[in-house]
Amino acid sequence: MEFEQIQNRRKSILSLLQLHSVLTVEEICDQLKITDSTARRDIKWLESQNMIYRFHGGVSALNNQYDVFDVRSKKASDAKKKIARAAAQLVVNSDVIFIGGGSTMFQFSKALLARQDLKNVIVVTSTFNVAALFAENRKYEIIILGGNLNKTDESIASKMTIENSKTINYTKIFNGAMGVSADCGITQPTADLAELERTLMARAGCNYLLVDHSKFGRVGAYTVYQISEVDLIITDKDASVDMEIEKHAEYKDRILQVE
């Protein structure tokens, strides 16, 4: 009987995550009427079985995490290329820009390289595959922020990266995100990545977010900043984007939907 109760509790946690994507331990306790210690035991077991992702103070569904880069790059590829081309037009001569990691940022880098009219642009990045794209183009000065390399997506986001990012003044920064939510803001899966992007934003003239529609309504473990702090979000047209805009109409002017 006790085993059946345990199994039912764990199934209930998974069912809640299907509805909410991210939950705090307190919310699980309130929903299931269980103690904090019981919830944490169930969470620990579910994580050991690779059924959920656990972070400090809560859990999220596995499908709410980043896929590896080569998988993500194939998702919504046409939309990402359109977003990238629109964002590339925001760069002007003598800009000092930061380019973040992710498949949309990779497409943005390609779109930027396709422009033949730019001069004296400095590109700063913490992503190895982005740096490699620009390496053979003499028009651009490339600065790579050092730190520990994440081999899954070839990005760098560590304490060293954050400290190095503080030495540069950026005219514009271009980043992706794990999730965009009217309630939770712009979110990422790791604390270091969230801190890096907050540091960059504090030193930037303009902050641009490049995300396809699949990121709207999703929530990562760590909030980077709120939508109100973004100069412009460039995305594609989809009902999921419209739903988030409807929740907070004041964000409408900050979101550009490309076709």
Structure in a nutshell:
The protein has helices at 2-20, 25-32, 36-48, 69-72, 77-88, 103-113, 128-134, 159-165, 191-202, 239-247; strands spanning 22-24, 52-55, 58-61, 96-99, 122-125, 141-144, 149-150, 155-156, 170-175, 179-181, 185-188, 204-210, 222-225, 232-236, 255-258.
Descriptive terms for the model:
259 residues, alpha/beta, seven-stranded parallel sheet, three-stranded antiparallel sheet, 39% helix
Strand-helix topology:
Elements: H1 2-20, E1 22-24, H2 25-32, H3 36-48, E2 52-55, E3 58-61, H4 69-72, H5 77-88, E4 96-99, H6 103-113, E5 122-125, H7 128-134, E6 141-144, E7 149-150, E8 155-156, H8 159-165, E9 170-175, E10 179-181, E11 185-188, H9 191-202, E12 204-210, E13 222-225, E14 232-236, H10 239-247, E15 255-258
Helix pairs in contact: 5-6, 6-7, 8-9
Question: Could you please describe the fold and organization of this structure?
Answer:
It is built from ten helices and 15 strands. A hairpin with a 4-residue loop joins strand 7 and strand 8. The strands form four sheets. It has a seven-stranded parallel beta sheet, sandwiched between helices. A three-stranded antiparallel beta sheet has the order 1-3-2. The chain has 259 residues and is α/β, with parallel strands linked by helices. It starts with a helix and ends with a strand. The relative contact order is 0.12. About 3% of the residues have low confidence.
Secondary structure category: alpha/beta
Uncertain residue segments: 65-73
Total number of helices? 10
What proportion strand? 15-25%
What's the story with the biggest beta sheet?
7 strands, parallel
Instruction: Note the overall shape.
Output: elongated
Give the number of DSSP strands. 15
User: Taking Cα atoms only, what radius of gyration do you get, to the nearest Å?
Assistant: 20 Å
Strand order of the largest sheet: 6-5-4-9-12-14-15
From N to C, what is the helix and strand string?
HEHHEEHHEHEHEEEHEEEHEEEHE
Distance between the termini: 56 Å
Please, what is the average pLDDT? 86
User: Helix amount, in percent?
Assistant: 25-40%
